[in-house]
Amino acid sequence: MKYVDEFRSPQFLQAQLDKIAEFPFNARFMEVCGTHTMAISKAGLRPLLAPKVELVSGPGCPVCVTSAADIGLALALAEIPDAILATFGDMMRVPGPAGTLSQAAARGAAVKIVYSPLDALEIAVSNPNKQVAFLGVGFETTAPAVAAVVLMAEERGIDNFHLLSLHKLVPPALKALVEMEEFNIDGFILPGHVSAVLGSNAYTFLPEDYGIPCVIAGFEAVDILQAICELMVMRRDGAGLSVEYSRVVRAEGNPKALDIMHRVFEPADADWRGLGVIPGSGLRLREEFTARDAASLVAKIIQPADDRGCRCGEILCGKIRPAECPLFAGSCTPDNPFGPCMVSTEGTCASYYLYDYTDNNGVVNNGVEPQHQQVDNGVEPQHQQGCD
């Protein structure tokens, strides 16, 4: 592919929409990636596919699935005297038991926004008399980079660098989803970024054990529609696992990234917003790195408060759409988020509010991203494969 434009071609998009419309049945698919949710909304695909295909959003936003209890732990860290909490910016406004990290910073807590875990390590170097805790949030995509920084801290002897690992693993969450009562989807659009690290082999249990079709998709409109075409074929002919995003994703994933991740972390039970505690779905520091566990710095954890009507958990499980939450677009907006799904740029509520929401005047936000001449890696788009 030389340019992104091939993956946004109106001719290719219309051809795929026509093929999807030819199937003599309707289907309900779930995208399990916040970037996919935003891409679908920005391209205006939901109304174009309806009623033939219904797309629902799953727990694909790492900020959104972080539990209230874990936000309370981060807030407790921020309040420790002579400590610095380093975090990515999208965690600053997530509501917790005692407000947000942004509000904690306004009260005088030392909360620093960083762009990478390496920035947090440098803060520790520059402040040797303070304990620096990095808030590690994300799926398999971000965990290897965080693990690499932990190893770097070990090598350089930077003893005041700590990590609060709130990392989550995608496959156990998918297993928990499909085993939920009344869970009703016909296939998964699987995440591209996570799968670039994890590899496609990690998902074989879904078609083999549960009979659920799965396609790993890229992030352009043609990628997503091609994935839907393949899912429709599988729904007709039998479940399988396909990699539409083959220009990036391999069956074995990224062995080097996985090796670094497994050297530092081991699986642990984790609390997911909406899904509860899922066995083996999180990552904790291995025993040899427990001295760097930031949770050990906290004497008292701020306990979660009542959610006050936020239905983000149900949205993350695909049980309801954002507009079915009584707070959506009223007391909960991107400028004044009431729940985490409205905070992150990958949040389901935020994407629906910006692109799929009909306001009181009947105006529908359904924006299409402008086309750009961006260079990629020389692989031609896969639109010619078809879906029959």
From TrEMBL:
GO terms for biological process: protein maturation. The keyword Nuclease does not apply. Gene3D superfamilies: 6.10.20.100, HypD, alpha/beta domain 2 (3.40.50.11740). Transmembrane segments: none annotated. The keyword Iron applies. GO terms for molecular function: 4 iron, 4 sulfur cluster binding; carbon monoxide binding; iron ion binding. Keywords: Iron, Metal-binding. Pfam families: HypD. Belongs to the HypD family. NCBIfam families: hypD. This is Hydrogenase formation protein HypD.
